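Illustration: tRNA(Met) cytidine acetate ligase.
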Amino acid sequence: MKATGVVVEYNPFHNGHLHHLKQSRLKTNSDVIIAVMSGNFLQRGEPALVDKWTRAKMALSAGVDLVIELPYVFATAQASDFAKGAIFLLEALKCESFCFGSEEGSMEAFRHTYQLLSTKKTEYNTAISNFMKQGISYPKALNEAYRFISESSSLPLVDLSKPNNILGYHYIEAAFQLNASIKPETIHRIVANYHDEAKPNETIASATGIRKVLFDEMDFTAIEHFLPSTSLNELQLWKSNFQIFGSWERFWPILRFVILRHTKEQLANYAEVTEGMENAIWNAAMRNETFLLFMQQIKSKRFTWTRIQRMLTHIYTEFTWEQLKNMDLPTYIRPLAMNKNGQAYLQSIKKNLQIPLVSRVAACKDNNMLELDLRATNLYYLGLQTDYGQKMIGSDYKITPIIR
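Result:
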């Protein structure tokens, strides 16, 4: 059986994701689609709209054959580490290819870009450092350094100011650095860009736009034309059970408590908290009753909204710099959901896996990376502050992989 991998968050699964899935299967002529999916906290440093089990069911209903959880340490990391963890898992799962959505839509430009940056690595890193010394944020420094380096090339290159292009570049970089045999492919992202707001006259919108409409209006009819009916059904079921969707605004009372129960010096021990941000975070938590006001106070040219949110995620889950240093690559494969096709594929490769397959977490002892996932899950449900959420604490021990 021929397998293709995709790296996803599905927050929530929408029509754009459905297009990507269908095109990925067609482009690679694959029998199996494997999705490596973030758990309950995401790459932009925020709680997922709905939990990983709900999003895994959305994926299965739309045509994914096997959903694997991307461990917390990679799911909440900067783009290069996020990509490294995901591509490592897809390679470990014997995928022949992986297919990502991009604004570029052409593999040629990605290859040229990787060749340029790998051959001019020293100049590129020096340029990044020089731009950061001017007080601008790391992502802006990357863009400026890339623009500077790319002036020396006449070949077609990728626009690395676009979010999906950035991730795509890091997927390819990870595959090369891991010396992986997996082959990259890309699908052109259509209609909606990552940060675009949802437009009523379209059928495809970004997940960001869909979430904004849902939070602003709390009306499913306003988003139903952006989602497969199966995704809409899952969202409605979630709302009937939990009454609320995941967001930092909802989690703020507990996050604020976690921040203020620490000293400023203690906050500096958590991953990605750097350059005195522990002081700004603690002081802003003292003064602000809402998450939005808190973020508006501490956001700066130096630190993007996303980077600050990742700091907060690690403070909330108590994930330290020391833990981060000791975790390089995924140490297990954890299936969340599969159909009969995905189950048959997993069974066919099971004996040749290089890292453990974890279907029951209780059977996996002394795995620090997995312990982080379990903690993050419990804290996610606690942050929802609902009776149903309280019942879901400990669910990683109770729920086995979903099979349909």
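Reading the tokens back as a structure: The longest helix spans residues 368-384.
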